[in-house]
Amino acid sequence: PEQVASEAAAALGLIRQAHRALGIEAARFRLSLAGGSGKYVGNREMWDKATAVLTDVLVSAGLPFDAEEGEAAFYGPKIDVQVADSAERETSISTVQVDFYQPERFGLTYTGPDGGKHRPVMVHRSIVGSMERAVAHLIDVHGGAFPPWLAPVQLAVLPIADAELPKADQLTRQAIEQGLRAELAAPSDGSLGARVRDHRLVPYVAVIGRAEAAAGQVALRLRDGRQLPPMPTAQALGAMSGAVSRRGTELWPESMSGR
């Protein structure tokens, strides 16, 4: 019981960390309480204790919240993280629940420092909810333009002409060796403009022209429209790998935008 508040707070912190990495913004936080129906189990004392814990977690985190009756799980209250889609329809995507009932129902005990038997408290957590709901929300929020670390293709390599194909193929292989999901779009796939448009949802597009191929450089186009000056291949791969490993939504460090 003395650990339940910190565990519930840690679960909420993990949810918020995952949401930052995924680019999910909460529409609001809901403290879901029991209503007047008969679907809820346990005694009033259990519900009051669990509600007090979750209220303290939200207040300590500095998060505004709405308390709503009739939205709790049958065994206890919960914190629901609500998100909204492009049509402003709201749904719960993540949750933290404090449960005093089921440990008693199943006769769960642990041996405390005093050698006596004590009743534990159960903390339920759902970090990003069901996979189907989470993916549907991400597609809706990002329009298919996922954060760099999550994008199905992270780097598209576009040689301007067939003469640059060997260098482009080499860059693609180097990127894959570094753990990036990269693909080559050859001139036979269409004009440069058409290939750029075809890869508009890819975070990074590397254009390889005659000058870049000769100098061992790459000119990167970022999905947000920025075009970076040519840079050494190793520098470009290092920056992209760094952005991916940070598990964030930032495409490129602002400090490197001019380099």
If you had to describe this structure to a student in words, what would you say it looks like?
With 259 residues, this protein is of the alpha/beta class. The protein has helices at 4-22, 44-60, 101-105, 131-142, 165-177, 192-198, 210-215, 233-245; strands at 28-33, 65-69, 78-84, 90-99, 110-111, 117-118, 122-126, 155-159, 182-184, 204-208, 217-222, 231-232. The strands form 3 sheets. It has a 5-stranded mixed β-sheet with strand order 2-1-3-4-7. A 5-stranded mixed β-sheet has the order 9-8-10-11-12, with helices on both faces. It has a two-stranded antiparallel sheet with strand order 5-6.
The tally of beta strands, per DSSP, is 12
Helix content: 25-40%
Q: Report the span from N to C terminus.
A: 54 Å
Order of helices and strands: HEHEEEHEEEHEHEHEHEEH
**Count of DSSP-assigned helices:** 8
Q: Identify low-pLDDT runs.
A: none
Largest sheet: 5 strands, mixed
Shape: elongated
SSE class: alpha/beta
* Lateral strand order in the biggest sheet: 2-1-3-4-7
Q: Radius of gyration from the CA trace?
A: 25 Å
Average pLDDT confidence is 93
Strand content: 15-25%
Give a topology summary.
Blueprint: H1 4-22, E1 28-33, H2 44-60, E2 65-69, E3 78-84, E4 90-99, H3 101-105, E5 110-111, E6 117-118, E7 122-126, H4 131-142, E8 155-159, H5 165-177, E9 182-184, H6 192-198, E10 204-208, H7 210-215, E11 217-222, E12 231-232, H8 233-245
Parallel strand pairs: 1-2, 8-9, 8-10
Antiparallel strand pairs: 1-3, 3-4, 4-7, 5-6, 10-11, 11-12
Helix pairs in contact: 1-2
